[in-house]
Design brief:
The chain has 113 residues and is of the alpha+beta class. It has one domain (21-111): Immunoglobulin-like (Sandwich), CATH 2.60.40. The chain is 16% helix and 39% strand. It is built from one helix and seven strands. The longest helix has 18 residues, at 2-19. It is globular.
């Protein structure tokens, strides 16, 4: 019971801090308006495919569920593959931002090792 309460508290805090999901389809669906990501859950790597061209200078950023920035990668082309060696088992949030820093997409994925 206490674990569920703590998890709900963390989710509420992240939502207020701007980590709320922006565009998410049905539950457990790894698709969205701009990005398709797979596999989910992931273990060694995860792929992000962009359904439409992303402007030059855009980045994809990764955060732990507690809000710690894990990684940031520039987006070049329509696919980014991320090595998950430094990620432990858990839930992570990604954000796609354009060159000016505007949030284009946000969603979550799971790492299971």
């Amino acid at each position: 019971m206490v674990k569920k309460f703590v998890a709900i508290l963390i989710l509420a805090t992240l939502a207020q801090a701007g980590f709320a999901q922006k565009s998410i389809g049905p539950a457990n669906n790894a698709t969205s308006k701009l990005v398709h990501f797979f596999p989910n859950p992931a273990s060694a790597f995860i792929n992000f495919e962009f359904k439409q061209p992303v402007e030059q200078g855009s980045v994809i950023q990764f955060y732990s569920f507690l809000g710690r920035k894990m990684n940031s990668q520039p987006i070049s082309g329509n696919r980014v593959t991320v090595n998950l060696t430094e990620f432990i088992t858990g839930i992570y949030i990604f954000q796609v931002r354009d060159a000016s820093g505007r949030l284009l997409e946000s969603n979550k994925f799971q790492v299971a090792k």
